[in-house]
Amino acid sequence: MTVIINALTPVLALIVLGFLIRRTEFIPSTFWPAAEKLTYYLLMPAMLIHSLAGKEIGSSPWLNILLTVGGAILASVLFVMLGWLPRRHMGGAAFTSLFQGGVRFNTFVALALAENLFGKEGLFLASLGAGFMILIINVLCVSAFSVAVGHGVFDLKRLARDLVRNPLIWGCTLGIGLNASGVILPAAMDGSLVLIGKAAFPVGLMAVGAAYQPGNIALHWQPLLTSCGIQFLCKPAIAWWLAAATGLSGVAAGVAVLLFSVPTAPSAYILSRQMGGDHDSMAVIITVQTCLSFFTLPLTLWLLR
């Protein structure tokens, strides 16, 4: 339990800090849109390039991990669609919040728990799985925005344009390309990416807190309830089943389930703001899921053991 509290408390603390800063007007309200734009176009791509470029696959069960996380992600998309069917009246922007709330994962929490629970081997395998997930999820989320915010019309040109222009996908592509090519970044450049990328997490979480309105829970309870059910019930179960089906065991299986048991990512709010989503409901989903995970993660880990 202590490990989970230590991993989740910084996340919640930064959300609360952003909430207090916005409510006390310690910083002018004009700061937040600029901070969100900076995070989206610079801080997060830098973090992605650094985190994906430096992973050595080696003799790890990378194919089994890829099959497990890829299958679980596609299953989570299916769960989202099934959860959306009885709520088709919600607008396209609200659907994107449901989509991100049920598909994304909090990388920081997942990696912190993997290292504390499974040591260096767990951290490496979690980083490997997260690398696969980041690219797949970002492509799916940008595609969902392109269709949903475009009034449900599938426009191939619009989708291609949104994918090509998305800085997060560029960050994933460059990081994986550097990894696959074996190119090692100069120490000065890699160090710069590390420093820039480290700012993405605190700035993004404070932006979530700044946008959070307590009264919005009642307004956005439908996407909130559905996304929480998918995130904390459906995804861990399907990840456990796929891990067994692909032959993963021990630490690798535990890491696979862990990746699909954490709350959604704070980057979901930044993407929602920049691509015309319902950022109010997204802020509610991120905050509530983070709070709920204090209770759901101990139960998941107990079942896992």
TrEMBL record:
Is the keyword Cell membrane in the record? yes
Recorded hits in Gene3D superfamilies, A to Z, give:
1.20.1530.20
Q: Which cellular component terms (GO) are annotated to the entry?
A: plasma membrane
Q: Name one GO biological process term.
A: transmembrane transport
Is Cell membrane among the key words of this record? yes
What keywords were assigned to this record? Cell membrane, Membrane, Transmembrane, Transmembrane helix, Transport
Q: Which InterPro entries does this entry report, sorted A to Z?
A: Mem_transp_PIN-like, Na+/solute_symporter_sf
Regarding the membrane, this protein is recorded as: Multi-pass membrane protein
Query: Membrane-crossing residues?
Result: 65-85, 91-111, 123-148, 168-188, 239-262, 282-304
The subcellular location is: Cell membrane
Q: Which domain of life is it from?
A: Bacteria
PANTHER family reported in the protein's UniProt record: AUXIN EFFLUX CARRIER FAMILY PROTEIN (PTHR36838)
Similarity comment: family membership: Belongs to the auxin efflux carrier (TC 2.A.69) family.
- The name this protein carries in UniProt is Membrane protein
Taxonomic source organism: Citrifermentans bemidjiense (strain ATCC BAA-1014 / DSM 16622 / JCM 12645 / Bem) (Geobacter bemidjiensis)
Q: What is the lineage of its organism?
A: Bacteria, Pseudomonadati, Thermodesulfobacteriota, Desulfuromonadia, Geobacterales
